[in-house]
Amino acid sequence: MAPPPSGTATFLRVPPECPACHPPWSIACPRVSPECPRGVAMAMELRELSRALLESQVAVVAALGRLVATVAGPEGDVLLAVSPESLHKALDAFRDHLWDTLAAFGATPGPSRADVAGAAGEWHRSVAAVADRWTELATEAVRLGEACGAAVISEREAAATSSGRAGDLGDIVRAWASSLRELVATARRVPVVTDKEEEKAVLERHNTRLEEATKELKGALKRVEESTVARSKARAAARRAERAAAALGPLQGLVVACAEAIALHLRLSRRAGDTAAALAEAERLREASARLFTRHLRGTLGDILMLLPNGPGGPGGHAVAQRCQKAMEDIPSLLRGE
Question: Domain limits of the chain?
Answer without folding.
Answer: 30-162+251-335
